[in-house]
Design a protein that fits this description.
single chain, 325 residues, alpha/beta, Rossmann fold, CBS-domain, 2 domains, five-stranded parallel beta sheet, four-stranded mixed beta sheet, 12 strands, 44% helix
């Protein structure tokens, strides 16, 4: 028997779809009302010598914090200033080189007054995000990014729902545009996200590879006695071989070694048994690319090379241990 907790009532489903549709409608209105003010706001943000300061009260403040965090993590220095705290000393965090983005759906949040006055007094550019350009905030803004004025998804028409969704999406619009304008890269993103899942996914081969004395590497003319000692001592299940110029010419894995065992194996040299032109990767490649390549080729090691010369070797276990999949 299916429990009631596993069911969704027709009434709940209708309510959910109505909410989603109303919020989608709000986003469509915002899309249709976009104008040159967006480019002007982005120009201010991009040309700022200082930081982008986000502020807002209540639900607008929560959205402002998220926008500030998104901007900061994608190459645009930014942080949130609480308007109430600003009135008690935190205005000192804002400099003449900054740009302020103040958010208020109605545009009449009294807590913003001191930040607005401070911005005007010291000539700090102010971007206003509000549904009412004729509000106190709208009139104070050097540029106004207008929010849709078509009500909330809340059945009472009171709780911030559609308006906060629109503000959040507008923040994403600004963030994505700044990423594109600044040419922000995956590697730069990685530097700002060293922890958690993002950190593991964005690690480079150079972050995980074995290098220097830890790299199992020999001259291609090395005898098999030395090859066996190198493979056993470095414990990576492989040995790379180089020619007289230092270029990587081949590789031998423990699996290859088992397949070529014979009575005269110790009479051979590395060049006699190695796999020529092995798969390699750049040390600047993402570790996830290395995992993909090893999986596709059914191998467990990759040498990282620069201009043909080995600079490291990465093992599939190095990736898995760091959560790279």
């Amino acid at each position: 028997m299916t429990s009631t907790i596993d069911k969704i009532s027709n009434k709940d489903l209708i309510s959910a779809k109505n909410t989603i549709e109303k919020e989608i409608d709000t986003l469509k209105v915002m899309e249709s009302e976009l104008d040159a003010s967006l480019t002007k706001a982005l120009d201010l943000m991009q040309n700022a010598k200082g930081r982008v300061i986000l502020t807002g009260m209540g639900k607008s403040g929560h959205i402002a914090k998220k926008i500030a965090a998104s901007l900061a993590s994608t190459g645009t220095p930014s942080f949130f200033v609480h308007p109430a705290e600003a009135s008690h000393g935190d205005l000192g965090m804002i400099t003449n080189d900054d740009v302020v983005i103040a958010i208020s759906n109605s545009g009449e949040s009294k807590e913003l007054v001191d930040i607005l006055n401070y911005s005007k007094r010291f000539g700090i550019p102010l971007i206003a995000i509000t549904k009412n350009p004729e509000s106190s905030l709208g009139k104070a803004g050097d540029i106004v990014l207008k929010l849709p004025n078509n009500g909330e998804a809340c059945p009472l028409g009171l709780a911030p729902t559609s308006s906060t969704t629109a503000t959040l999406v507008l923040g994403d619009v600004l963030t994505v545009a700044m990423i594109e304008r600044n040419g922000f890269t995956k590697n730069q993103f990685n530097q700002r996200h060293p922890g958690g899942k993002l950190g593991s996914v964005l690690q480079k081969v150079s972050d995980l590879m074995h290098k220097g004395a830890d790299m199992p590497l020999l001259d291609e003319k090395a005898n098999m006695h030395d090859v066996l000692l190198e493979m056993t001592g470095k414990r990576l299940g492989c040995v790379g071989f180089t020619d007289e110029t230092g270029n990587l010419t081949g590789m031998l894995t423990d699996g290859d070694l088992r397949r070529c065992l014979s009575n005269d194996i110790l009479n051979k040299r590395g060049i006699d048994v190695m796999t020529r032109n092995p798969k390699v990767i750049s040390p600047e490649a993402m570790a996830s690319e290395a995992v993909k390549l090893m999986h596709e080729k059914k191998i467990t090691n990759l040498f990282a090379v620069v201009e043909g010369k080995p600079v490291g070797v990465i093992h599939i276990h190095d990736c898995l241990d760091k959560g790279v999949v």
